[in-house]
Design goal:
heterotrimer; A alpha+beta; B mainly beta; C mainly alpha; B: mainly beta; Porin; 16-stranded antiparallel barrel; two-stranded antiparallel sheet; 22 strands; 7% helix; C: mainly alpha; 46% helix; elongated
C-alpha cells in the first residue's frame, strides 16, 4: 500500500514525492529524495487504518519539507540559495540571515576546535581532485595553485556579514545533511512525535525508543563489500549516529590508497585515514563532526574517539 | 578565542566533544521552528516563500438613471520575516450622477413617478490604508490598521486593532477587536428641520466619531467545515444628518404638496448598533459553499437581516465559477417619514430612502482564471435591485397614489488580478 | 434600547458557549486533516478587495452595516 503525493509548489522541475510503506516489523517507513540521496523516516504508529496513514504521511512530510527547505537554502547548486550567493559575491561582503549565520558560527567553531583541519572553504580543491576509484593523481603544482583560495582564516566573518576574498568558496555539504536530520527531528518532536527514526542518507537521529520500548537498530554498511552487508549494528534509543567515509570515493596509485578527506593545509588527502568512521552522539550534527574530525586525524582516528569517550565504529 | 579553546582542549584532553556540543546546541536552537500546522500552507499554492502579494482591481458600479462609481484598487502585502507582514492599500474612485433628495414630486394626482432627484454631481475620493500583522506568540496574532480617506467634502481617519488567538490545535480562534474613526464633513450645512429656502446656512466642519468593538470565534467543525460567529457593537456620535436630504411638506388632509419649501432633515446624534454575523464555509465535493447571515439592529430602530450565499465550483485546475445570491431586508428607522404634514414638529425626521423599509436582492457570478504567466484573474458581474414600499402607510391623501420609493437597479462590473511573487 | 443591546450581547455569548460545548462533544480536526482548510479559498474572507468594495456599495444604499469585523477607517461614503 503506497501513498504518493506530488509536491509542486516551490520546485516545479523536481518531483517531490513522499511514499509510505509498512515494514515487516510494524513500523511505517516514509521515503523521499533529498540532500542528494534517499531519505527515510521510520515511525511507530499504533493504528494503520486510513487516518493513521494520513497522520504518518503528515509527519513524514514534516521531515521532508524541512529537508527540502535546507537543501534549497544551502545547496551550492541552487542559484537562489545563500551559498550560491556567497560563492558568487566576487569579493563583496554578503549579509546573512539568522539561520545561515548560526551555521557559519558553527563552522567557525568547528574550524577552531579542529585547529583548522575542518574547513568549509576546502571545496575549491575538488577542482584538482576527482575521487572516482581511478588512478589520476593531480600534479602537485595544480594543488599548490589552489591553496591560496583555501582557508577559513582568510575569510572575514563578522556576524551577520561574511566577506570572502574573491575566488574563495564555501561548501556546507559537510554539515548540511546532519543539520537537516536534527532539524527534521526537531520538527517531529514539536509535532508531538515521541518515537521515530530519521535517516538522511546514513546520518541518523532517533527521537525515542520504539513504541514497544525496544531500541531502533541501525546497521553500518561495509564499504569493502559490494552488497549491502552490514558489518555492525548500533542500537539507538535517543540521539544521533553519523558515518563519514565512502567506499567508492578514493584514488589508488602504485598500491597506495588516497581517501577523499583532504587536508585543507596541504591540499592532499589525509594520510592513513580510515575508510569509514561511525560515531554516536547526542545530536546527529555532533556525531557527524566527531566522525569528520576523526577522519582528519588520519591514523589517530581511533585514539581520538577513544579519548573523547564516544561510542564509535571504525573500518580501516 | 582560539587560544582559550586550545588551552581548554589541552587541559581536558578529550574535550572536543563538549566544545562541539556547546557549538551545536547554539546552532540547533538558533533556527526558529516552522509550525507543524503550517506545512500544508507552506506548500499550498501561493506559498509564503513568496514575499510579495499584489492585488489590483478596477470596478464600475452603475445605477440606472442615478449615480455611477468608477473605482481603482491597489493592495500590496509584504511578508517581513516569519512573523510580520505589512499591507498598504490605496483606492481611488470617482462618483457622478444624481441622487434622490427624499422629496415627493407629486402635486396633483397625475404624476407617474413620485420622487424628486437632486442635481447632478461629481466627486472623487482617495483612500489609503496600512495594515501591520504581527505574531505576539505562535498562537496569538495582532493586526493594527490605519486608514485615511479624503474627498472634497468629507475626510475620514481611523485606527483599529484586532487580536486573534488560536486554541485547541488551531481548531478554535477567538478574536477581539476595536476600532475608532472620525469623519469630518466640510460643507454648507443648513439649520435642521427648517424650510430649505429660508434655513440659515453655516459653513460648518461637523464631526462624527465611530467606535466599533468586536468579539468573535471561528471554529473548525469538521475537515471541510469552518464556522465563524461575530458580534460587533458600534457606537456612533456626532453629525449624522445628511445635508442634501429634504422632506416634503404636504397638506395634512389632501396630501397636496404645499407651495413653500421642503424641510431639511434631522437625525439623532448618537447611534448604537449591534450586528451578529455568522458564516460557514463548507466543502461540497470539489466546490465550496459560503453561507453568511447577519442580524443588525440599532437605536434608530433599524432591524435588518442579510443572507449571502456563494458557491465556488472549479471546472479545471485553472478555472472556477462562483455564483452569488444576496438578500437583504430592513425595517424603517423610527424617525423615517416619507413626508411631513404641515404643522408637524417632530424631534427627528428623515425621508432618506435608505432609512425606509426596503429589500435588496443581488445575483452575480464571478469567474476566476489562473493564466500561464501566474497569478489569478477574476471577472465579476452583479445585478442589484432594491425595492421599498411604493405606498407607505404614512402617505397622505393624493400621495397614496404616488410611487414613493425610488426603485434602484444597479450593476457591478469588477475585474481583478492578484499575484504572489 | 438597553434591553435590545443586552439581548444581542446575550445571543453572542450563547453562540460562543454553544461553540465550546460542541467542540468538547466533537472529535477535533487533526493538523494533517487540514489540507482543505488551509486552502486560500477556505479563508473567511477569500477576496478582500471584493469584500471591501461590496461593503462600501451596500453601506451607501442600506441602513445596516458591518458585522464581519472592525475596520480601521470610516468609509466616508454615505
Amino acid at each position: 500500500m503506497q501513498v504518493c503525493e506530488k509536491q509542486e509548489a516551490s520546485c516545479p522541475q523536481k518531483t517531490r514525492a513522499v511514499t509510505l510503506r509498512i515494514a515487516g516489523e510494524g513500523h511505517v517507513v516514509g521515503e523521499f529524495q533529498a540532500l542528494g540521496g534517499p531519505c527515510e523516516v521510520l515511525l511507530d504508529m499504533p493504528d494503520l487504518d486510513i487516518p493513521g496513514r494520513e497522520a504518518a504521511h503528515h509527519f513524514v512530510k514534516l521531515a521532508a519539507v524541512e529537508a527540502w527547505r535546507i537543501e534549497a537554502k544551502f545547496s551550492r547548486y541552487n542559484a537562489s540559495g545563500i551559498v550560491h550567493q556567497i560563492n558568487n559575491a566576487k569579493g563583496q561582503p554578503v549579509v546573512l540571515d539568522e539561520e545561515s549565520s548560526a551555521l557559519l558560527d558553527f563552522a567557525h567553531s568547528c574550524h577552531q576546535i579542529s585547529d583548522g583541519a575542518f574547513d568549509i572553504t576546502s571545496g575549491v580543491l575538488r577542482r584538482a581532485w576527482t575521487f572516482d576509484g581511478g588512478n589520476r593523481l593531480p600534479k602537485p603544482a595544480t594543488v599548490a595553485a589552489l591553496l591560496p583560495q583555501v582557508g577559513w582564516h582568510r575569510a572575514n566573518w563578522s556576524r551577520p556579514q561574511l566577506h570572502l576574498p574573491s575566488g574563495m568558496e564555501i561548501d556546507l555539504g559537510g554539515i548540511g545533511k546532519e543539520y537537516a536530520v536534527d532539524q527534521a527531528a526537531r520538527q517531529l518532536a514539536a509535532a508531538g512525535i515521541r518515537s521515530a527514526l530519521v535517516n538522511f542518507g546514513g546520518d541518523v537521529f532517533a527521537l525515542g525508543p520504539r513504541a514497544n520500548g525496544e531500541s531502533w537498530v541501525v546497521g553500518i554498511d561495509d564499504p569493502n563489500a559490494t552488497g549491502r552487508a552490514c558489518v555492525r549494528s548500533f542500537p539507538l534509543r535517543h540521539g544521533g549516529l553519523a558515518t563519514s567515509g565512502d567506499a567508492r570515493r578514493f584514488l589508488k596509485k602504485n598500491g597506495k590508497r588516497y581517501g577523499h578527506i583532504l587536508n585543507p593545509k596541504t591540499g592532499w588527502p589525509v594520510r592513513g585515514a580510515p575508510r569509514s568512521v561511525s560515531v554516536k552522539a547526542d545530536s546527529c550534527i555532533d556525531a557527524g563532526m566527531l566522525a569528520t574530525f576523526a577522519m582528519l586525524k588520519g591514523p589517530d582516528a581511533g585514539v581520538f574517539l577513544k579519548a573523547e569517550g564516544v561510542e564509535h565504529f571504525i573500518i580501516w | 578565542m582560539q587560544l582559550t579553546q586550545k588551552k581548554k582542549r589541552r587541559r581536558k584532553g578529550g574535550g572536543v566533544c563538549s566544545l562541539l556540543s556547546a557549538a551545536s546546541a547554539s546552532l540547533l536552537l538558533a533556527a526558529p521552528l516552522a509550525n507543524a500546522e503550517d506545512v500544508h500552507q507552506h506548500h499550498a499554492e501561493g506559498a509564503p516563500e513568496q514575499l510579495w502579494r499584489i492585488d489590483v482591481g478596477t470596478m464600475r458600479y452603475s445605477e440606472k438613471d442615478r449615480i455611477s462609481v468608477a473605482e481603482q484598487n491597489f493592495r500590496a502585502r509584504r511578508q517581513l520575516g516569519e512573523e510580520n507582514a505589512l499591507t498598504v492599500r490605496a483606492d481611488y474612485d470617482s462618483v457622478s450622477g444624481a441622487s434622490p433628495t427624499g422629496t415627493t414630486k407629486i402635486q396633483t394626482t397625475s404624476g407617474a413617478s413620485g420622487t424628486a432627484y437632486m442635481a447632478r454631481f461629481q466627486t472623487t475620493r482617495a483612500a489609503v490604508g496600512v495594515d501591520w500583522e504581527t505574531s505576539l506568540s505562535p498562537d496569538t496574532h495582532l493586526t493594527l490598521a490605519g486608514d485615511h480617506s479624503s474627498s472634497k467634502m468629507n475626510k475620514s481617519s481611523g485606527i483599529g486593532a484586532t487580536v486573534a488567538r488560536d486554541f485547541n490545535q488551531r481548531n478554535t480562534t477567538l478574536i477581539a477587536g476595536a476600532s475608532y474613526s472620525v469623519d469630518t464633513i466640510d460643507m454648507e450645512i443648513k439649520t435642521e428641520l427648517t424650510p430649505d429656502s429660508t434655513a440659515a446656512v453655516r459653513a460648518a466642519s461637523e464631526k462624527k466619531d465611530q467606535i466599533d468593538l468586536q468579539l468573535g470565534v471561528s471554529q473548525v467543525l469538521a475537515r471541510g467545515t469552518l464556522l465563524q460567529l461575530n458580534f460587533v457593537h458600534g457606537h456612533a456620535s456626532g453629525y449624522m444628518t445628511n445635508p442634501h436630504k429634504l422632506l416634503s411638506i404636504v397638506h395634512p388632509l389632501t396630501g397636496e404638496t404645499l407651495t413653500y419649501s421642503p424641510l431639511t432633515e434631522k437625525r439623532p446624534d448618537t447611534r448604537y448598533s449591534n450586528a451578529l454575523y455568522a458564516q460557514i464555509n463548507q466543502v461540497l465535493g470539489t466546490g465550496i459553499l459560503y453561507g453568511g447571515y447577519r442580524y443588525f439592529q440599532d437605536t434608530w430602530g433599524i432591524k435588518a437581516h442579510t443572507v449571502d450565499l456563494k458557491y465556488r465550483q472549479p471546472f479545471t485546475e485553472k478555472l472556477y465559477v462562483q455564483p452569488h445570491i444576496r438578500v437583504y431586508t430592513q425595517g424603517a428607522a423610527d424617525f423615517y417619514r416619507s413626508m411631513l404634514a404641515a404643522g408637524e414638529t417632530p424631534a427627528y425626521a428623515s425621508a432618506d430612502h435608505r432609512l425606509a423599509k426596503l429589500q435588496t436582492n443581488s445575483v452575480g457570478v464571478k469567474l476566476g482564471y489562473k493564466p500561464t504567466f501566474g497569478g489569478e484573474l477574476t471577472a465579476r458581474i452583479e445585478a442589484i435591485r432594491q425595492n421599498g414600499e411604493l405606498h407607505p402607510q404614512d402617505a397622505i391623501g393624493v400621495q397614496k397614489a404616488a410611487d414613493l420609493f425610488p426603485e434602484l437597479e444597479a450593476t457591478i462590473f469588477h475585474i481583478g488580478y492578484t499575484k504572489p511573487f | 434600547m438597553v434591553f435590545r443591546k443586552l439581548l444581542a450581547c446575550l445571543m453572542a455569548v450563547c453562540a460562543l458557549g454553544g461553540c465550546a460545548s460542541m467542540q468538547s462533544a466533537m472529535q477535533s480536526v487533526q493538523p494533517w486533516e487540514k489540507d482543505q482548510l488551509a486552502k486560500e479559498e477556505m479563508q473567511l474572507v477569500p477576496d478582500r478587495v471584493e469584500e471591501f468594495f461590496d461593503s462600501r456599495v451596500y453601506f451607501s444604499r442600506e441602513a445596516a452595516f458591518g458585522g464581519k469585523g472592525v475596520g480601521g477607517g470610516g468609509c466616508g461614503c454615505n
